[in-house]
Write a structure and sequence with these properties.
The structure holds two protein chains of two kinds.
Chain A lengths: L4 E2 L2 H5 L20 E2 L9 E7 L9 E3 L2 E8 L5 E8 L5 E8 L18 E2 L3 E5 L4 E6 L4 E6 H4 L14 E3 L2 E6 L6 E6 L5 E6 L10 E3 L8 E6 L2 E6 L5 E5 L10 E3 L2 E4 L4 E5 L8 E6 L10 E3 L2 E5 L4 E6 L5 E6 L9 E3 L2 E5 L4 E6 L6 E7 L15 E3 L2 E5 L3 E6 L1
Parallel strand pairs in A: 2-28
Antiparallel strand pairs in A: 1-3, 3-34, 4-5, 5-6, 6-7, 8-9, 9-10, 10-11, 12-13, 13-14, 14-15, 16-17, 17-18, 18-19, 20-21, 21-22, 22-23, 24-25, 25-26, 26-27, 28-29, 29-30, 30-31, 32-33, 33-34
Chain B lengths: L2 H10 L8 H10 L8 H14 L4 H7 L5 H21 L5 H9 L5 H14 L1 H7 L9 H16 L3 H14 L3 H13 L6 H5 L4 E9 L21 E3 L4 E3 L1 E4 L7 E2 L1 H4 L5 E11 L3 E9 L2 E6 L2 E6 L11 E7 L2 E11 L11 E7 L15
Helix pairs in contact in B: 2-3, 3-5, 4-5, 5-7, 6-7, 7-8, 9-10, 10-11
């Protein structure tokens, strides 16, 4: 099915602005959910929208002037799509389709297109819940393919997988963690072959690997989160660097800022790994900052966590002390993103809310209700992407660009 | 990789070398194996195939279905890229040959599915015209559109003509959602529907248990039924001696619930065995739905097992390819219940059916006529 472009009247009436800041993976640069050079509009408006031929809760990513987005169609969500669109207009550059080679069963709210693609700037790596993993160049040429359920037949989760891969150095890190055949892979970005394979805890896990390095001169590493805790591995060799074993969420991913790991563990636990220590030093722990299924964001000297009741807690990164709380309208599945001094959250019902973090108690500066399709009861389940002053968010049927 | 070396590699995959650079490139794609084997060569071959344009589509289809499902995806992406490029550039696509390929049911199922998808992309009207002829297709996925047309037609009429139309649809439907819809419509029209027969569920079992599954160790523990099937035997179980007993499912979707004969137990393992009298030797699929840890053996040969608990169950959740002997075939199912106490972890059950690759029930030789 061809993706039909539904340009809004706004987009038709003005020249398409340039978009240049990359959002290369789930939760953006360094998986922080922060666009360093971005700016969230105080009062976002819909720029353009495109309709999608299949379901998905993966986030769009942005590389240069292009957006990449996955979805899955067909009665069993067995048809896997990867789209490349022009970021400024939503115009389609190319589409590629695969047939799922692994299991496509998910719980109804989940989707086979649940994993966000990632990019190293030259290649796009797309993973689906069926464990099909594909690498394309930016022009849509297929570089390599893996069927990770074909390779490892008991690797699947009947609720659906959702961990998003990340490129660190020349290694694509993939977590295929589930109750049965559970593992993480370091894959050569050029050949698609395994650099290493680690057995992982036999437990369902929807968190995503994070990039980390001890210092500017250290080898790049990946943090693998699970119910057991956090494991740091050298991405080139897969060797273990350090481990935190006090448990962690299997849904809310941790975040790294200024060398500190804010782990989704026992609420939030701030950890300072050393370059050679076998386990990180705990700086603080706060059970009052409970991210539940949502991943936290660090912006400046504050960590922001959105809980299941729709309350944003702003806490000091140095101590974990909560400075203010702000209620926003939920419920939420997607996590907050940030740029400048603003947070942006989108609830399941399509209500976009912009929060000014500099207001004494935090303040909602703008709201926008996205026109979700009522007949299909579709929800916003994804975490948005930011590029420049543009925000991208999707449902099962539509990708929207929001601007100022 | 040098072409000469490639030939050696391809020979290793049992593929017959073809002539010409294009055929060699197609074979490289078809030879992609596990854990990324062949990927590097395939990247270059993929570009060569795409560059060769629409004329290569018949050969591309012929190469599909001869390697792994991952290899088929290499070919699929190449085929769809070629058709997409051809559309953009106004090039002709060999739709007649693709249609002929689609209609040749001797071709590999994956190749015929691709042929239909490419035809739909290249010439939607031509593909749509083919759809009604696919109602009896041996590829389950290809039937769906034709079945939907039959459903739509049946829903547009009333009374006896509607009954006849829905019965016609029931005869060819294989997907669960469409079957439910048709069965519901027929029952509303006063027509009985035998869903266990339609799907080929196995509902008559001999069961034994409980054996232990403390700490989820029972999944890998070899209990006596895995060593022998002696229906008169007694073995030590979790809470005392256990022996085989007959049990049957009354569920029309074939779910066999161990909780009924054995009690609402936790951290336990049980087995169910049945004899399936195949009318002839044939390729078949055992299709299982189960949210407990399970293992299956056919005639003493282990087919597959999975130690996942309470993440979900659905019809045809697992499709296990196998070969049935003519006559009695012994099917043994191991089903483990874990320690979880939540309400949604009560189920200790499975549903199993015997069918062909299209999902058409294979009925036991002694099955009475409807």
């Amino acid at each position: 099915m061809r993706l039909s472009i539904l340009l809004s009247a706004f987009a038709l009436g003005v020249a398409a602005p340039a978009i240049a800041a990359d959002w290369p993976q789930f939760r953006g640069p360094e998986s922080t959910a922060v666009a360093p050079d971005g700016q969230i509009p105080a009062e976002p408006k819909i720029g353009w929208s495109v309709s999608l031929p299949g379901r998905g809760l993966s986030s769009p990513i942005v590389v240069g002037q292009k957006i990449f987005l996955t979805c899955a169609s067909g009665p069993e969500q067995e048809r896997l799509h990867l789209f490349c669109l022009e970021a400024a207009s939503g115009r389609q550059f190319w589409e590629r389709q695969l047939q799922a080679t692994g299991r496509t069963m998910t719980q109804p709210k989940n989707s086979v297109a649940s994993c966000t693609p990632c990019s190293d700037g030259q290649r796009i790596f797309a993973l689906w819940s069926s464990n099909d993993l594909a690498a394309f160049d930016l022009d849509g040429n297929l570089l390599w393919l893996r069927g990770l359920t074909a390779d490892y037949p008991n690797a699947s989760n009947s609720l659906g997988m959702a961990s998003s891969p990340v490129v660190i150095g020349d290694t694509l890190v993939v977590m295929i963690e589930n109750d049965s055949e559970s593992y993480a892979l370091g894959i050569d970005v050029k050949s698609g072959g395994n650099l290493w394979k680690l057995d992982r805890p036999k437990a369902a896990n929807w968190t995503s690997p994070l990039p980390w390095r001890a210092n500017g001169h250290a080898s790049p590493a990946a943090l693998l989160q699970s119910s057991k805790g956090l494991l740091a591995v050298d991405v080139a060799s897969g060797s273990r660097l350090w481990e935190y074993t006090e448990g962690a969420s299997t849904m809310s991913s941790s975040v790294v800022a200024d060398g500190v790991v804010y782990a989704s563990s026992n609420g939030v636990t701030a950890l300072l790994p050393g370059s050679t220590d076998p386990s990180p030093r705990q700086l603080w722990r706060s059970k009052q900052i409970n991210p539940a299924t949502i991943s936290p964001v660090v912006l400046g000297d504050r960590i922001y966590s959105l809980n299941g009741a729709g309350v944003i807690s702003a806490a000091e990164t140095r101590t974990g002390d909560i400075k203010w709380k702000l209620r926003v309208t939920g419920p939420f599945s997607g996590s907050p993103v940030a740029a400048g001094v603003r947070l942006l959250v989108v609830n399941e019902k399509g209500l976009v809310q912009v929060v000014d973090t500099t207001a004494p108690e935090g303040a909602i500066t703008g709201k926008l209700q996205l026109p979700l399709k009522e007949n299909s009861k579709e929800l916003i389940l994804c975490t948005p992407a930011i590029s420049g002053t543009h925000v991208f968010v999707r449902t099962d049927s539509t990708l929207w660009e929001l601007g100022g | 990789m040098k072409l000469r070396l490639l030939s050696v590699v391809l020979a290793g995959f049992g593929l017959v070398p073809l002539h010409g650079a294009l055929d060699q490139s197609l074979q490289v794609l078809a030879a992609v194996g596990r854990e990324g084997q062949g990927n590097e060569a395939a990247g270059a071959a993929w570009k060569e195939v795409v560059t060769s344009g629409p004329a290569c589509l018949p050969a591309l289809l012929a190469a599909t279905g001869k390697g792994s499902p991952v290899a088929d995806n290499w070919l699929r992406v190449a085929g769809e890229t070629i058709v997409g490029n051809a559309r953009q550039q106004g090039q002709a696509v060999p739709v007649a040959e693709m249609e002929a390929f689609l209609k040749d049911t001797a071709r590999a199922p994956a190749a015929r599915r691709l042929a239909f998808d490419l035809l739909k992309e290249a010439d939607p009207a031509r593909a749509e015209a083919v759809v009604p002829s696919l109602a009896h297709d041996p590829v389950q996925e290809l039937r769906r559109g034709a079945v939907q047309q039959l459903i739509d037609a049946a829903q547009s009429i009333q009374g006896d003509p509607a009954r006849a139309a829905f019965l016609k649809a029931l005869d060819v439907v294989r997907d669960e959602d469409q079957t439910r819809l048709i069965a519901g419509a027929l029952r509303n029209l006063g027509v009985p529907v035998d869903l266990p027969r339609h799907f080929g569920f196995l509902r008559e079992w001999q069961i034994i248990g409980p054996f232990d599954n403390a700490g989820r160790q029972g999944f890998e523990t070899v209990f006596p039924p895995e060593k022998e099937i002696q229906l008169a035997a007694t073995y030590p179980g979790k809470d005392g001696p256990v022996k085989w007993q007959p049990a049957a499912s009354q569920d029309e979707y074939g779910k066999f619930d161990f909780n009924k004969p054995l009690g609402m137990l936790k951290e336990v393992t049980a087995y169910a065995v049945t004899t399936f009298d195949a009318p002839e030797e044939c390729e078949a699929e055992l299709r299982l739905g189960c949210k407990n840890a399970w293992k299956i053996w056919l005639n003493g040969q282990f087919l597959f097992g999975r130690d996942e608990y309470h993440r979900g169950q659905k019809l045809d959740q697992y499709k296990l390819k196998c070969r049935l002997h003519k006559g009695p075939n012994t099917i043994l199912v191991k089903c483990c219940q874990n320690e979880q106490k939540e309400l949604w972890t009560v189920e200790w059950e499975f549903q199993l059916r015997v069918c062909d690759g299209a999902g058409t029930a294979i009925l036991a030789a002694a099955t009475p006529a409807p």
